[in-house]
Amino acid sequence: MAETPVVDIRRVGKAFPNVRALADLTFDVRRGEVVAFVGENGAGKSTLLKILSGDYQLDEGEVLLDGQEASHVSPREARQAGFRLVRQEPEIVPHISAAENIFVGELPQRHGVVDFARLRADAWALLEECGFDGLIDPAAMGDTLSPAQKHIVEIARALKPGVKVVAFDEPTSSLTSDETERLFTLIRKLRDRGLGVIYVTHRLHEVMEISDRIVILRDGRLVDVCETQSVTPDDVVRMMVGRDLSYGFARTETTRPEVVLEVSNLSSRYHENISFKIHAGEILGFAGLVGAGRTELAKVIFGDIHKRSGEVLVVGQRTRIRAPSDAIAASIGFAPEDRKGEGLILVRSVMENASMAVFSTLSRFGILRNRMMIDTVSPLIDSLEIKTPSLEQEVGKLSGGNQQKVVLARWLAAKPKVLILDEPTRAVDVGAKAEIYRLIDSLAKSGIAIMLISSEMPELLALADRIVVMHAGRLSDPIEKSEASEERILNAALGQQAA
Amino acid sequence: MTNMSQTTTQRSTENPLKAITRFVGAENLSLVIALVLLVILIASQTPFFFVPRNLMNIGMNLAVVGLLGVGMTIVIVSGALDISVGSIAGVASVVSAIFVTYVGTVTGGVFMGVLAGALLGVVNAAIISYLRVNAVVATLATLSAYRGIAFLVAPEGRPIGVLDQSFAYIGSGRVLESGSFPGIPVALLLLVAVAVVAHFVMSSTVFGRAVYSMGGNPAAARLAGINLTRMKFYIFTISGALAGLAGVLVTARTSSGQPASGTQGLELEAITAVFLGGAILAGGKGTIVGTMLAVVLLATLSNGMNLLNIPTFYQLVAKGFLLIVAVAIGQWRMARAERAQARASLAG
Questions:
Q1: What is the pLDDT of residues A415-437, one digit of tens each?
Q2: Which of A368, A408, A411 would you mutate first to test chain B, the one with the most B CBs within 10 A?
Q3: Which of these, A100, B30, B113, B276, is most buried using a 10 Å CB contact count?
Q4: Does residue A297 contact residue A286 with C-beta atoms inside 8 Å?
């Protein structure tokens, strides 16, 4: 086999109105290797993937796929040429089966009728080949699939015959550690089969584990392409952000004796007998697999999901929380995981989004006081360093990290005693992540009790003072920071609990 | 305006033209231009348009649709739709006529008409909230049911004559009438008053901002402590009450309580005005100012078509066409904004 790279990118450039998204990129992806793309949000990773997948057209340079000119292709042509993109948020049709979702557009037919027997067989075979058998029922309807299962469907779609290069865009954001392990096994298998694999993620430890080479992008330009073995994570981060930045985050414990949030024997349709306490200034980490019931627990406490029994006490006071408004009145704040779906009103302004939980305190006789709104929101914009041209800016036009900070600003405006943060750094770039960590740390220092739900182990280990693990609607005993380790948490999350 | 004082405080030294633009809203500027063009077009075709009496008539005619448009703006911004407003106006028309003619109370007539409308709005909200019926389907059902109620309430299902002069004044009276100046219709003043209050409520009150929030993203609004069920009751009650007031106007204007005539098909005009005024079906966007401009535009168009002797059948086709144009423009704007946003987030 000649040394033709499977993807050859030559002096590629791309511009959008007012912005240069990519400039002068040249590198290649070879057969049988895993190349990771890293860079902060906006560095150009997604733009590059979308050029390869045919979603965007490049303005300068050329792209060769397996030696064939592929600079200007449609998404369909890119697929046929062997480039397959596993999208971060897969499109799943809700009311057809997983198998149909995998083969949508290419359903096997006999006499003009869909051959369901063959469809099932093909789906089984494909899933088995990927090593995902047992994780998903091909007959399950699209809308019953978990986020992880939807991702599996998307991966299976990509691996249909004719594949030469697979690009994974943040594949593990909805996967559990176990599923991530299976994905890595699959990626190694694909590599050994001679495919080119592109792996895009914010999670550096994954990059270090799975990749052979790392392509580092910053502001649409290539910083370097390096052999993974020859660099350390700190080197990579330095090249990504172009400045020195401590990735490991040192938190000084600020736990005070008084209990701020006490949950006792809480039960709902998702949970049984949940009890825990969070002290003033303490960050209690909630680990667990996706689907273990952590987000639901947050929503039960916040009054958005009905609770069957149990008590929620804030600073020793019993609460009667039946709706989110009751929780807000009880000084609880909740920044949900799904920022765009449940957190923000993208078509409204920064000011409205940041002040909406406290409208009633910023008004007199139901009339909003503009001055008070500005006085409340402006300092928060400054202290959280939210980058926005004005308070009137539509939130949908901000970057992911800034959007997340607007959600935080909303709850800081409410001056909560308890703050529930559900995956606060999901889809946030490295630089903004460190900022959000510092922010959470300083909130704890100010005496707020923080319930931190996170699926990123390093995040929990860095921030949390104690960690509890949820498995199938039940909660483990708290693990002290000094005794916490990834293995111990993972075992508890998988239900293999000894301690 | 209070909601814009944020920007006003920053730029206090600017020319009045800019100030007007800001009040109207940049996105409504195209409406103003369309209106000007339409006026020029009509005036160039017929000498009867730019006559004080004709202009006064336009003002009088748009009051009913204008009131419905105010309510409909609130409903559509919240992410819903109320198709039953024309039928509610029909019930209110009959109810107010009954009170004025048979009970002999003008105030009672107005009050009971509005109250009837509000109650029917509450019924809409209850169906939507408690039976979880989609707002379009629920109000499509009540569109039929309320029309039936209007006929049932009217004795023998027939219109009720109203002879009271002071009541008629609400519908067809004019103030400042002198010489060649035909005066300003009372009904128009009523609409202006309602619209000003509604504009203030939507832009500067907790309630108004909550309506925008729930329309923009109901889940986020709920998790920010907004009680969506309660909001729906308020919104549909307001829409019903304003439809009731519109029905009262119809009675006062025509001197008879009409179960059907005069209120049928008004929902279409109100919905068209709201979308033409810049609202989107998904909710979260739309303004009272925009809707009012669109109401004026529609009334001018309708007046122009009458003056030019365009047959009613063509006018019906034109009305349907306009609704589609209005929504299509909205979709196009959304797509354009989304493209811009995608570009920004990718590049940013």
A1: 999 999 999 987 677 677 888 88
A2: A368
A3: B113
A4: yes
| Alpha helices (runs of H) in chain B, residue ranges in sequence order | 5-10, 16-24, 29-45, 52-77, 85-98, 106-130, 135-153, 165-172, 186-204, 206-216, 218-223, 228-254, 266-276, 288-307, 312-347
Sign of torsion over alpha carbons A291, A294, A297, A299: negative
Q: Are B78 and B231 contacting, i.e. CB atoms less than 8 angstroms apart?
A: yes
Fold of A259-493: Rossmann fold (3.40.50)
Please indicate whether, in this complex, the C-beta atoms of B216 and A346 are within 8 angstroms of each other.
yes
Tally the residues of chain A.
Answer: 499
A45: left (phi over 0), alpha (psi -120 to 50) or beta: alpha
Fold: same for A7-92+145-241 and A259-493: yes
8 Å CB contact of B224 and A324: yes
Give SS3 for A438: helix
ipTM over 0.90: no
Q: Is B216 in Cβ contact with A348 (below 8 Å)?
A: yes
Owning domain of residue B262 = 52-347
CB contact under 8 A, B213 and A346: no
Q: What's the pLDDT tens digit per position in A449-489?
A: 999 999 877 788 889 999 999 888 888 889 888 888 777 88
Q: Which residues in chain B are closer than 8 Å to A363, comparing Cβ atoms?
A: 205-206
**Closest chain A residue to the Cα of B229, Cα to Cα:** A323
- Give the pLDDT of residue B2: 38
Q: Is A480 helix (H, G, I), strand (E, B) or coil?
A: strand
- In chain B, which residues have their Cβ closer than 8 Å to the Cβ of A397? 341, 344-345
Beta strands A309-314; A317-318: pairing state: antiparallel
Instruction: Judge whether residue A41 has pLDDT over 90.
Output: no
Residues of A in contact with B345 (CB under 8 A): 397, 399-400
Cβ contact A397–B344 (<8 Å): yes
Chain B contact present for A40, CB below 8 A: no
Query: How do residues B286-345 score in pLDDT, each as one tens digit?
Result: 999 999 999 999 999 999 999 999 998 999 899 889 889 888 888 888 778 767 655 555
The fold for domain A7-92+145-241 equals: Rossmann fold (3.40.50)
Count: domains in chain B: 1
- pLDDT confidence bin for B348, thresholds 50/70/90: very low
Asked if A367's CB is within 8 angstroms of B206's CB, the reply is yes
